[in-house]
Amino acid sequence: MFVSTNALIAWEAEFGHGLLVAQTSNGVIAIVAMVVGLVVGAGALLIVNLLRGRELKAKADSILAQAKTTADNLVRTAEVDAKEAALRQKQHLEQEANKLREQVRKKESTLERREESLQQAADDMRKQEKMVEANQRRLSEKIAEATRRSEEVKRLVQDQTQKLLATSGLSREEASERLLKNIEQELEQDIGNRILKHERRVHEICEQKSQEIILTAMQRYASAHTADSTTSTVDIPNDEMKGRIIGREGRNIRAFEKATGVDVIIDDTPGVVIVSGFDPVRREVARQSLDKLIADGRIHPSRIEELVAETEKELEKFIRRKGQEAAEEVNIAGLHERVIYMLGRLHFRTSFSQNVLRHSVEVAFLSGMMAEMIGLNPDTARRAGLLHDIGKAADHELEGGHPKIGADLLKRHGENEIVVHAALGHHDQLTTDFPYTLLVATSDACSASRPGARRESLERYIKRMEELESIARGFEGVEQAFAIQAGRELRVIVSARETDDAKAAKV
């Protein structure tokens, strides 16, 4: 059972060596496994990182593609916006250019009219210069004739003096006194006859010239007139609407009359409501407001007040526009806003059924034309003619006649003395301080007497035409006569058997 020491030592040595060898082998394996694990882990890590890098790259590529798409969209949107902005700017510039071209056209038209006026004035001036030269020649001839006659009178005086001294035995002083008395009596009679003759001639020339000027102006300006009715009527769809306009216990119609200041007349006339009022502006406000209420269908006091206020604002703008249009029509600038407003109110005024604003425009044109022909300023004449009846726009609000009211209004708003005086004195026959006042008064009378302008003148116009034709038929050889163009032209038919060319020219 006992083992020898050598054998044990040998076994221990052999076994310990084997154990050492086994332990050494296990360490190497562990190291190799660790290295392999590290290599495998590093490889796996590299593979994972590689896969993750590819995924990130794909995401990056996707983001870049989206960014590029977004950028392209933004660029296209910006291009479209830029094109739209450029188109809008182009349209705006074209509109501005059209406005400028229109302004230039208007200014060119104004300059052409002024050139024509200046050319006409120059022609008139040349005619007047020729007339002055002709008058100077006639005056020189008359002076020479007077000198010749004076010499002849002196010679006759000397002859008479010698005869008287020789036959009468009078002294020179007595003879001279008697002779001078005889000559004075003869000359007084001759001078009186000549003065009367020249006065009649001057009167005929002045009357002929004034008629020529007035007729020329009336022929150059032809205006159409319509008689404006002072009754305002409103059409309604059915008779049931009358009851809605009246309202419960009449509250709607009372509210309407209170808001507009006019009377609403509802009678048995089918389909019509009558608006009656003293002020034509209020009557127009009432008419338009009632039209709006009927179209709207909501008729009650609060709605009535709302629509009346809205209509008053619209009508005020319309009045200012009519005043501005009238001023532009006659080429008048620099009017005060209040004057333009009062001028526009004349659109709703009538005088003997003649629209006062159209009458004022016609007076302005006639005054300007006649002013050109007699050497006055046509612009001043047109301004005075346009504003002469402006007092009629406010004569129910202020005391006094429309000439005084208009003159006060124009004076307060900076118009010159000529225009103020024309408004004040165009109905005053004794006011002759300013020639423009007489010019406006003449144009006013021409406009009022134009056939059809006022209702009261129609019968007188027909009678005047008949008298003109009757006078023409009273001449020898005249078979028929026709008054045309409101009496400005008379066409005469003569008999060829009774009248030759010379007699026809005389007729």
General description of the model:
By secondary structure, this protein is mainly α. Among the domains are: 77 residues; 103 residues, K Homology domain, type 1 (Ribosomal Protein S8, Chain: A, domain 1); 123 residues, Hypothetical protein af1432; 48 residues, no CATH class. The protein is 73% helix and 6% strand. It is built from 14 helices and 7 strands. A 3-stranded antiparallel β-sheet has the order 1-3-2, with helices on one face. It has a two-stranded antiparallel sheet with strand order 4-5. The longest helix has 163 residues. The N terminus is likely disordered.
C-alpha termini separation? 195 Å
- The count of DSSP E runs of length 2 or more, i.e. the number of strands, is 7
How much strand?
A: 5-15%
**How many distinct helices?**
14
CATH superfamily of the domain at 331-453: Hypothetical protein af1432
Helix/strand-derived category reads mainly alpha
List its traits.
single chain; 507 residues; mainly alpha; Ribosomal Protein S8, Chain: A, domain 1; Hypothetical protein af1432; three-stranded antiparallel beta sheet; two-stranded antiparallel ribbon; 7 strands
Furnish the topology, listing elements before pairings.
Elements lengths: L4 H163 L4 H49 L11 E4 L4 H7 L4 H10 L2 E3 L6 E5 L3 H17 L4 H29 L7 H9 L4 E2 L2 E2 H19 L3 H10 L14 H11 L4 H9 L9 H15 L8 H16 L4 E7 L4 E6 L6 H6 L1
Antiparallel strand pairs: 1-3, 2-3, 4-5, 6-7
Give a brief rundown of this model:
This protein is mostly helical and 507 residues long. The chain is built from 14 helices and 7 strands.
